[in-house]
Amino acid sequence: MTAGGARAQGLLHWLRDGTLATAFAAAMGLIALFADTTPPEQTLRALRDAVRSQSASGDLHIVEIDAASIRAVDRWPWPRREHARLIDALHEAGARSIAFDVDFSTASNPADDATLARSLERAGGGVILPTLRQAGTTRDRRIIESQPVAPLRDHAMLAAVSILPDRDGYVREAPFGIITGGTPRPSLSAMLAGRAGGAFESFPIDYAIDPDTIPRHSFVDIASGNGAAAALRGKDVLVGATAVELGDRYAVPRHGVIPGVAIQALAAETLRRGDPLVLPAAAVLILGIAAAAFVARGVGARAIWVRAGLFAGLLMLVTLAAEELASTTAILVPALFAVGCAAGVAAINHHLAGRRAAARIDAASDLPNRLAFAETATQTVVAAIVDRFDEVAAGIGSERTGTLVRRLAERLSPAIGGAVHRLDERAIAWDASSIAPDRRGESFDALRALLLHPIEVDGRRIDIRLGLGVADRGEGSTAAAIEAALLAASRALDRGEFWASASDESPDAAAANLSLMGELDAAIDDGELDVHFQPKLRLSDRRIASAEALVRWTHRERGPIRPDLFIPMAERHDRIDRLTLYVVGRTLDALEVAAGVSIAVNISAKLVAAPRFHRALDALLDARPANVSRLIFEVTESAAMADIDGAVAALERYRARGIAISMDDYGTGQSTLTYIKRLPLAELKIDRSFVQHAHRNRGDGILVHSTVQLAHELGIKVVAEGVEDAECLAFLESCGCDYAQGWLIARPLPLDAFVACVSEPWALAA
Ligand code: G
Ligand code: G
Ligand code: MN
To answer: CA 120 to CA 88: how far, in whole Å?
Structure first.
């Protein structure tokens, strides 16, 4: 990884924490506080205004100098006597108040000015006339303040009608008051609404109110004195220009370009509804930061966005309600921005966390993988390797091995009391730190017992043999301990032991195992290798009618060596054909002395179709043809499955020589009886993992029972192996099974003991 990449990773690591996501959100919110967030803020406001859209109160009417009025009078500026007529008409009709948004700051002819002044006086001095505060010319930016001319302002009240567009030209706010000529003066809207407010303070105009709903009357109609003014009795009246040709029009949100007098009216309507208040952005931001903390702690991307959305929606709703019910609005964007940032960072973190987690999961089995295990500080590692994994995989299909390993983990993990990790295809591992070294044997024995029963995958039952290796981490890394444990596990498999410890293994011991193979040849030559015979009981007459030859090796120094250690070694080191020929020879010897019985020899999968073995076997049998018809070859299912055509041909050759074929370990693989039909079988041995529980376990019982029936239909005899108790034997008899083999009948016996046992009827030992 590059330095920059590492730094970026470090930063992401930092932001992973919800607290830091919140801090980031707070910082972004503060930045937004000082940035110009007007456009989004206005968009949100316009959205709420659209929801709140409503009509004006109807108490405030506009008398407009509209196109019709201009046409009627046909002069501009209007003669001031027109205004005088209007005031008289309104006063007579009983209008509540009269306000003008018309410039009276320059003198017209003295007669008209006097007429207007008199009307103002008649109206009681309560008519409101405007003062203006505006830029002089485009070149001269000085502010010009203008008031109505002296005769008029003596009999009227003054109010400011200045309009303050925002920089983008939109009018959003209106002032409470303005200082004109050094005197603070209320704005027209404040005066109409009877509100006081600091000069230069403004308030947002409520554009939820539709300006089209403010009642309007044409100036000429009202001023004509024909009684039209009666409609304005008790109303507040605002007089101003709406005719397009008179200008005085401004852009506002939602409603396009509207006359200044309409803006004055909307501002007055706004104030009538209540004292407008704007919550500062900072106050809302504090709320937003609290919400950001909540959002950042959402578990999962969905929860994060739901929380953020909930906050945004709630904030909008509360603001909407506050605007409608309390004339209070708020600046929301910094708070919403902070929450958005928190959600964004939290969602990215969640995504990255998901990817990190996925990298630590084995997809096929859903178990945590080697990377995940190596990251733990496990003191003691146990690794377990599945024996003959390739054969198992070929049997069930490699796509099912993930499920197999998962089932294996499920079976082991309650006993282990922790998570099982998958190291590679064939190996799993777990933490055994809590088991004292002197109790390991005991605890592993418990695991071994768990594996006596086959594992079911998609309805198939698979017998699994494991080799366990245990290694202590010591000063090294967990990864190194995993390697050491794996090595010990493969050694355990090699030796036919269930488990081995990495620390037990001295280089001497490894060398000793290698030299063992050299000694096998000598052992065969010197007769150190022996063959025992395990009787098979014929159930029809309860006589020992058959046996299985099982090789035994008692080493001069090391004592008895287990066949499941040295047979796989002999297979790997190319000595299995010599060993098998030796067993066949000893079996032919036995057949000479044990009259009337047949004896089975185990033939390794490797040998079944090996030409060299066939030639050597032919030579041996040609020399000693006497009892070959009582010879049986036991072949495992996997041997036949690997290459069915080759296997069929090889087995036919044996049969042609008079040797009967027996299928060993039936049930642990995947062959069906229809498939087995292709093989020239005389006998089928049901694996002991099914037999042992057949009388107690319904599923096993059914398998044994149906196997017997189907085998009989195919003319194949059935042997049940691993019979250990009388109940089991009774069950087998009830199924119609032909032979029983197992410790209940007899242990594997030396030749003379076996011969003795054949001559007597078998009876259940008391
Ligand atoms: O009875 P015992 O625990 O020894 O048998 C252990 C394993 O060794 C069994 O699976 C048995 O089939 C196998 N075995 C015993 N003798 C021979 C033999 O002569 N040849 C082969 N290939 N396997 C044998
Ligand atoms: O795989 P094969 O059928 O060759 O296995 C024979 C093995 O089964 C030998 O190791 C033999 O000692 C063992 N065995 C024979 N009878 C019994 C029995 O009743 N119970 C158990 N657990 N093992 C048995
Ligand atoms: Mn066997």
So the answer is: 8
Q: Which CATH number fits domain 370-505: 3.30.70.270, 2.60.40.10, 3.90.1150.10, 3.40.50.300?
A: 3.30.70.270
Q: Give the position, in ligand 2's atom list, of the atom nearest the Cα of 741.
A: 16
pLDDT in tens, 549-595: 999 998 887 788 888 778 877 887 788 999 999 999 999 999 999 98
- Omega cis (within 30) before 77: yes
**What are the pLDDT digits (tens) for 69-106?**
888 887 777 888 889 999 999 998 899 999 999 989 88
Q: The domain at 529-759 falls in which architecture?
A: Alpha-Beta Barrel (3.20)
Residue-level length of the chain:
766
Residue whose Cα lies nearest atom 8 of ligand 2: it is 722
Residue pair 386/412 in contact by the 8 Å Cβ criterion: no
Whether residue 25 contacts residue 292, with contact meaning beta carbons closer than 8 Å, is answered with: yes
Confidence of residue 1 (pLDDT cuts 50, 70, 90): very low
pLDDT digits (tens, 9 = 90+) for 291-314: 999 998 888 889 999 999 999 999
Which residues have C-beta atoms less than 6 Å from ligand 1? 550-551, 563-564, 567, 580, 583, 602, 604, 748
From CA 574, how far away is CA 557, in angstroms rounded? 24
Residue carrying structure tokens 């929301």: 332
| Of 260, 249, 346, residue with least CA distance to 304 | 346
The secondary structure of 364-377 as a DSSP string is: TT--BBHHHHHTS-
When computed from its CA atoms, the radius of gyration of the chain, rounded to whole angstroms, is 51
pLDDT single digits (tens) 43-73: 999 999 999 999 999 999 999 999 888 888 8
Structure confidence at residue 135 (pLDDT): 56
Q: Which residues pair with 239 in a beta bridge?
A: 63, 100
- Pick the closest to residue 617 from 637, 630, 603 (CA basis): 603
Q: Are 720 and 737 in contact (CB under 8 A)?
A: yes
Distance 688 CA to ligand 3 centre (A): 10
Under 8 Å between Cβ of 301 and 350: yes
- How far is the C-alpha of 384 from the C-alpha of 388, rounded, in Å? 13
E strand intervals along 284-336? 328-330
Closest C-alpha residue for ligand 2 atom 23: 722
Q: Which residue, by CA, sits nearest to atom 1 of ligand 1?
A: 550
